[in-house]
UniProtKB/TrEMBL annotation, chain A:
Family: Belongs to the ABC transporter superfamily.
Domain called ABC transporter: residue spans: 13-244
Database matches in SMART domains: AAA
Native species: Bradyrhizobium huanghuaihaiense
Listed InterPro entries: AAA+_ATPase, ABC_transporter-like_ATP-bd, ABC_transporter-like_CS, ABC_transporter_ATP-bind, P-loop_NTPase
UniProtKB keywords: ATP-binding, Nucleotide-binding, Transport
Gene3D superfamilies (alphabetical): P-loop containing nucleotide triphosphate hydrolases
Signal peptide residue numbers: none
Protein name listed in UniProt: NitT/TauT family transport system ATP-binding protein
Pfam families: ABC_tran
UniProtKB/TrEMBL annotation, chain B:
Record membrane topology: Multi-pass membrane protein
GO process annotations (BP): alkanesulfonate transmembrane transport
Keyword annotations from UniProtKB, A to Z: Cell membrane, Membrane, Transmembrane, Transmembrane helix, Transport
SUPFAM superfamilies reported for this sequence: MetI-like (SSF161098)
Stated family: Belongs to the binding-protein-dependent transport system permease family.
Name of the protein this chain belongs to: NitT/TauT family transport system permease protein
Domain of life of the source: Bacteria
Pfam families from the UniProt entry: BPD_transp_1 (PF00528)
Role according to the record: Probably part of an ABC transporter complex. Probably responsible for the translocation of the substrate across the membrane.
Organism this protein belongs to: Bradyrhizobium huanghuaihaiense
Domain ABC transmembrane type-1 residues, every copy: 107-287
Amino acid sequence: MSEMLASTSKGHIEVKNFSLAYETIEGPVQAVTDTQIHVKPGEFVSIVGPSGCGKSTLLNAVAGFLKPTTGVVTVDGEFVNGPSAERGMVFQQYSLFPWKTVRENVEFGLKMRGMPRSQRERAARTLLGLAGLEAFEKHYPEKLSGGMKQRVGIVRALATGPKVLLLDEPFGALDAQTRVIMQQILTNMWQRLKISVLFVTHDIDEAIFLSDRVYCMTARPGSIKAEIPIPLERPRQQSMMMSSEFLALRRGLMSLIREESLKAMGGEINDLGMQGLNIELHGHSLVEVL
Amino acid sequence: MSSPALLRHPEDNMPAIAEAGPVPAVTPPATPPSFGTLALRWYRLNQGRLRATAIGIASLIAFLLVWHLLTTYRVVFFVRFTNVPSPLTVYASFTKAMHDPKFLMHILLSCRRIFIGFSLAAIVGVPLGLIMGRFKLVHEIIFPVAEVLRPIPAIAWVPMAIMLWPTNEQSIVFITFLGSFFPILVNTLHGMSLVDPVLVRAAQCLGARERSIFREVYFPASLPHIFTGLTVGMGVAWVSLIAAEMISGQYGIGYFTWEAYSLVQYADIALGMIAIGVLGLGSSLLIRGAGQLVMPWRST
């Protein structure tokens, strides 16, 4: 079945029986265990989970930076053996090359492919135009705002025409207003390019607003706790975030994650503890009262 | 220059409203700023730099003045200025030296030695550092040897260099090379160790292979540290060169300075020292300039 799909369409990600362990002196530490996920061609899928749950580990394995301890990662039926331009990646830290101008950054993938200079310059200009960054093509990344940097990051990843786009908390470092705009831009690009997207975030609203489907991961060692389809219609509007449908999805995901976050934090954090310091000081210092 | 009217932006009227504090409004609304206001504005923008330049010139003059006073009154206070030449006598020997082809030859020879020794150090040190930083095995083989040789001052190499090389000239260049080689190597290595791994991963995701990653990521990412190494290396190259010339040279500005002492030409001692200082400063300025040319993304 999956082989058939792979032959007809592009960008089908499959992760089967996946586990990944790090070697330490005390023996292997499981980061991710027993995980199955898939992204259908053209689908937008997010992974949410508490920090340290291994969602980035999973994404890095799909990118080809990490090898699974058990299980397989395939894209269109082909095993992932290492990073490649077929799987574009966008990083939280932007990771633009500081020594290259905006346009040279976008050109990079095309240059690696051996495209002649004039041709790749034209391609980069076109892409930058779509992202509204034409005027900044000669700037160095340092001079750009966070939102502009990440737009360059996305355009750079898309320039080589990858089958899938992998994003690792790409908007995590942006302020709330910029993030909303960036989500809209990403959605537009995704709909135009019909590319498969695997998106890692810890922001629940973001995951719901963007995705067709959301995987929720457990605390470390990470595995898939739940898979939630997002039936909200497209194109999605900012106003949908107030709809009862959206809020119901949000409540559901929120409680799933909260459970896992408490687990991930460890120790004895309970509701009582979260009420805060319940000590009356009466004008004394904390040390005196204790 | 374009006319003053073209230089004026609509925002120019804004600060007058926004900063209605103790600072009086600089721009009268709706009329082009006069030469006076432009000059005032230029002065305000460049105040810091002007101040630094003014103080710098004043302190140089003060230095010369103190030197002059100490030598004309032949002050003896722990140190003895009895035989130290005054700035004026040094200037006199400078004007004489400028017409003396021998003095110019000393300087030219020193510069040539620096150029060859330093260039060789850069040509060997930078690629070696890059390769050591990238390939563990090379690092593991070369690093221990480098660590043992590194603390040996270049002057201590003089006898060995004379044994190793058939001519004096070669051994002096060799010492200059050694002096600048290790700072260049160590800083290049340091730069390589600081390359952001995320940038390497970004390049891999865009289809870059080993060779391209080396050229497009590791090398430019290390450039700032490479230039630090080159600057430090240039300083040490001069130190080593002068020492080598004083010990085993027949020509060169270091030899000139030492010879001046032997021949009791006290003014020439100071002249030689100042020449060394100026040459050292000039060569580090050259490297800094080259750095700005090569790394346009770092200039603000």
